[in-house]
Write a structure and sequence with these properties.
Elements (H helix, E strand, L loop, with lengths): L1 H5 L2 H9 L5 H9 L6 H13 L3 H9 L12 H18 L12 H15 L4 H26 L30
C-alpha cells in the first residue's frame, strides 16, 4: 500500500477513476489516504459507493464502456446481447453492468444474458439500486487489481527509471461484460 498511499493525489485519483468513473468517489478515496491495508481501502471504497448520489451514479455508469465478448462467442450471442442491451439502455438510460469476477469464464456469457433478461423487468428505482451494487462490486475487483500493481509515478530523470513490463493479458481489467 506504500506506493498507493505516498503517490500524489492527482495520480491516485486518475488511477481510481479507472476503477469507478465517479469523480466524487475517486477524490474521496484519494483524500482519505493513507490506508493501512487493502481491506481498509476496500471498506472505504464500499462506503464511498454507498454514498453515491443519483448524479454520481449516473456519472459512473456513463463512464462504463462495452467490452468485447469472449473469444469464440458465436454471432447469435452477439445478436442476443446487442438486442438485450438496446432494450436495457432504452428502459433505464445507461449501459447494463454486471460483475462476473467469481464466475467461470465459460459461464460468463450465460450469466450476463440471464442477468440482463431478469433485470429488464425491474422498476427504475430497483434497477438503480442493483446497478449501483454491481458497480460497487466491479470497483472492488478493479481496486484489488490496482493495489497489486500500483507503482505510482516514475521520475524520468532517475537513472534506470523504467517500469517492468505489464503482465496484462490484453483482456479487460475485469471479467464483466456490460452488454
Amino acid at each position: 500500500m506504500e506506493p498507493f498511499n505516498s503517490a500524489p493525489g492527482d495520480v491516485v485519483e486518475r488511477a481510481l477513476l479507472a476503477c469507478c468513473r465517479s469523480l466524487r468517489w475517486a477524490r474521496r478515496l484519494a483524500d482519505h489516504r493513507p490506508y493501512p491495508d487493502l481491506d481498509a481501502l476496500l471498506a472505504a471504497a464500499d462506503e464511498a459507493a454507498y454514498d453515491l448520489t443519483p448524479a454520481d451514479l449516473a456519472e459512473a455508469l456513463a463512464g462504463e464502456s462495452l467490452t468485447v465478448l469472449p473469444a469464440g462467442a458465436y454471432s447469435a450471442a452477439h445478436t442476443a446481447l446487442s438486442a438485450a442491451h438496446a432494450a436495457y439502455e432504452s428502459r433505464f438510460g445507461h449501459v447494463f453492468v454486471i460483475c462476473v469476477d467469481d464466475v467461470d469464464p465459460e459461464e460468463a456469457l450465460d450469466q450476463v444474458l440471464a442477468g440482463i433478461r431478469s433485470r429488464l423487468t425491474n422498476d427504475p428505482e430497483e434497477e438503480r439500486i442493483l446497478a449501483a451494487e454491481e458497480l460497487r462490486r466491479l470497483a472492488r475487483g478493479r481496486i484489488t487489481r490496482l493495489a497489486q500493481t500500483f507503482e505510482g509515478p516514475v521520475d524520468p530523470a532517475s537513472p534506470g527509471a523504467t517500469r517492468p513490463e505489464s503482465a496484462d493479458s490484453g483482456r479487460p481489467d475485469s471479467p464483466y461484460v456490460p452488454v
